[in-house]
Amino acid sequence: MLARSALRNVSRTNRLFSTSAARQQKVTVLGAGGGIGQPLSLLLKLDPYVTSLSLYDIRGAPGVAADVSHVDTGSVVTGYPADKLDEALEGTKVVVIPAGVPRKPGMTRDDLFNTNASIVRDLAAAVGRVAPDAHILVISNPVNSTVPIVSEVLQKAGVYDPRRVFGVTTLDVVRAARFLAEIADSNPQETIVPVVGGHSGPTIVPLLSQLEQGKGLAGEGYDKLVHRIQFGGDEVVKAKDGAGSATLSMAYAGARFANAVLRGLAGEKGIVTPTFVKSPLFEDKGIEYFSSNVELGVNGVEKIHPLGPLSASEEKLLEACLPELKKNIEKGKAFVSQS
Predict the structure, then answer these.
(1) 305 is annotated as an active-site residue
(2) What are 136-146's pLDDT values in tens digits?
(3) Burial class of residue 147 in the structure, from the number of CB atoms within 10 Å of its CB (0-12 exposed, 13-18 middle, 19+ buried)
(4) Does the keyword section mention Oxidoreductase (predicted)?
(5) Average pLDDT over residues 242-270
């Protein structure tokens, strides 16, 4: 009951799941047997916008599917082993990719690059071949690089639509809301912080000044909060003592963003949330991808919103974000060109 009630609260306006979705969809999880994939699959089973849930991994997916399929919601769950990737993707409208290796103590997201880049590249190629019209939600880190990898692979295949490729940065939004609410003694569901930039360390820029609870923060308190939002994942890695990274909170964030995409595809209006996409906001600085508030709809990305007014502190954070983000993006593009 706790997981179901938590997942229902998925939008910036805290709108509940509809029990009579306008249009239900097939969703495929690539990496369903992993630390993120398993709880993500459970949460997606609870989503009434999901008619068919297709679970794939190189190991364990059929078992996860059998387990999750016993949950008493209407969607049909099917698990696919390593040699059935194409079957898992057939007819899917939304693909969520949490596949990859987790962070360990002392590792940065960038340390994950070589292994996860290859995994994401190969999965993106399969999506482009089998389900070229699918919306792709990338969780695999480092997102600042893996989203460009997916985009480049799809471009090579001739099926790229920038409106349908998303980097899931929702965990940054979730953390910002939770951490600020602790300080402001407010309801986290009413303390929604726009978080822009990218999805690692200094590329994460929380716009705390854009809501009442964050306007008065300054000095050491502000700096500590920003650092905690930017490096919140390190808390989990350290606390798990080598046993994993942020899997449960990431699964929640991934399911929350997937639900937002599905609601947009079903025709719901006014769904706005940060996500890392092909963006014109900083093209003049050579930065092709950026996370900002994005309106979702039947075509995926419908509108990319400007950042709005920034405080002097946020201007400094953005200044530090951009060169690092540009390097991350170029690293992903270079990986595909050299593959």
Answers:
(1) no
(2) 999 999 999 99
(3) buried
(4) yes
(5) 95
Amino acid at 226: V
C-beta of residue 331 within 8 angstroms of C-beta of residue 313: no
Q: Classify strands 204-206 and 195-197 as parallel, antiparallel or unpaired.
A: antiparallel
Cβ(210)–Cβ(68) below 8 Å: no
Cα gap 260→24, rounded to integer Å: 13
Please, what are the domains in the chain?
A: 1-339 (3.90.110.10)
> Is the predicted pLDDT of residue 170 greater than 60, yes or no?
yes
Please calculate the CA angle 169-3-238 and round it to the nearest 5 degrees.
55
Query: Can you say which residues are annotated as belonging to the binding site for NAD(+)?
Result: 31-37, 57, 116, 139-141, 250
> Quick one: CA dihedral 56, 57, 63, 64, positive or negative?
negative
Q: Which two tokens stand for residue 110?
A: 């960038």
Contact between residue 72 and residue 47 where contact means Cβ atoms under 8 Å apart: no
pLDDT of 20 over the 60 cut: no
Q: Is the pTM of this model over 0.85?
A: yes
Polymer length in residues for the chain: 339
Six-digit token pair at 224? 């500590």
Strand partners, 197: 204, 291
Among residues 74, 88, 147, 146, the alpha carbon closest in space to that of 115 is found at: 146
Lowest mean pLDDT segment, chosen from 46-50, 62-66, 89-93, 112-116: 112-116
Amino acid, res. 75 = S
Buried b (16+ CB within 10 A) or exposed e, 186-203: eebeebbbbbbbbbbbbb
In this structure, what DSSP letter does residue 15 have? P
Among the listed residues 70, 135, 199, 305, the single catalytic one is 199
Helices (H), 199-304: 212-215, 219-230, 232-239, 248-265
Q: Is 311 exposed, middle or buried (0-12, 13-18, 19+ CB in 10 A)?
A: middle
Structure tokens at 8: 């229902």
Helix, strand, or coil here: 133?
Answer: coil
